[in-house]
Amino acid sequence: MPPFQNQNVIEFARGASRLRVAPQAGGRLISWTIGGAPILYWPDAPDWSKPGLIRGGNPLLFPFIARHWVDGKVGLWRDALGVVRDMPLHGFARDLPFAAQIDPRGDGVRMTLTDSAETREIYPFRFRFEAVYRLADERALDVELITTNMGDARLPYYAGHHFYFALPHAQRGEATIRLPRNVHRRQLPDGVTTNAAPGATSYRFDDAQICDRFHCLDGEPDVPVRIDMPAQQRAIEIDLRRPGSTAWYAVTTWTLAPDSDFYCVEPWLGLPDAIHTGLGLRWLEPGEAQTAALQIRVNDMTYN
Questions:
Q1: 139-245-68-93 Cα dihedral, nearest 10 degrees
Q2: 87 to each of 61, 75, 92, how far by Cα in Å?
Q3: How far is 80 from 24, CA to CA, in rounded Å?
Q4: What does the alpha-carbon distance between residue 2 and residue 23 come to, in Å, rounded to a whole number?
């Protein structure tokens, strides 16, 4: 594994497309470049001692997404028997080391996290959680999240992505996102999830109302998610309609601050606090596995 920022990472390429992943840092996809141009944002001097807090790449969200609340207290969840346990923001996977297996063709990697005594303290289930990245061609990345129930009890989960797309903040006013049919929700500061409201299918990235908004898919997606960046002559399409994939529940849009040079577009299988609200909550029977697949394709806007 070649060094990157004094870390051992896995690097693979197909033509002009190059990926770096750090299995030891939460199975993080840390960079994707095409012809040297960044598709994903990654900071120059991240704190590698706290991988879950690095703003960049693609943190893996598992077993649950975002914040959970019990009796007005954040960071907790209640199981079916009424037992209350801790649950870190976005789950625990983004902070733990994954095992990695490089594809024999050299164009992809499979990273795997399994339960341990540590994880069972806050999530008392036996599981295997896998993230697969493979360059389908020079401009397309296939991604799979595979969750398997390895135990003898039903397993609740809702996983997701947190893609930090590189978008200089000065370009937000001309960059746009197109979404499939949707209704939107958000989580209020007290943990309450708002009722669904009709959602638009096109926004500019300088529209403040889309920050931290859950665009909940209204049936089978009719179009890919599309990000247009005219200043970069780049169009990014996220196809959520992959063969054999379980249905995605929502696409969340978020950024940290007005001057952040990234905007996150995050396909999710459920919503924050779904273990309590049921909004996207999934159950796996013993021995059952589910695959959530998508493809990201980067095109030159001149030809689209």
A1: -60
A2: 12, 5, 8
A3: 32
A4: 13
Q: What is the pLDDT of residues 206-259, one digit of tens each?
A: 999 999 999 999 999 999 999 999 999 999 999 999 999 999 999 999 999 999
Does the pTM surpass 0.90? The reply is yes
How many Cα atoms sit within 13 Å of 137 on the Cβ side?
4
Q: Are 56 and 43 in contact (CB under 8 A)?
A: yes
Q: Could you give the CA distance from residue 244 to residue 145 in angstroms, rounded to a whole number?
A: 12
Is the CB of residue 213 less than 8 Å from the CB of residue 200? no
Residue with tokens 């994939």: 245
Query: How far, in Å, CA of 264 to CA of 243, rounded?
Result: 25
Q: What whole-number distance in Å separates Cα of residue 272 and Cα of residue 288?
A: 23
For 72-75, the CB contacts below 8 A with 24+ separation are 72/190, 72/191, 74/191
- In this structure, the number of other CB atoms found within 10 A of the CB of residue 186 comes to 17
CA geometry: angle 28, 292, 125, nearest 5 deg? 75
Cross-strand bridge partners of residue 185 = 214
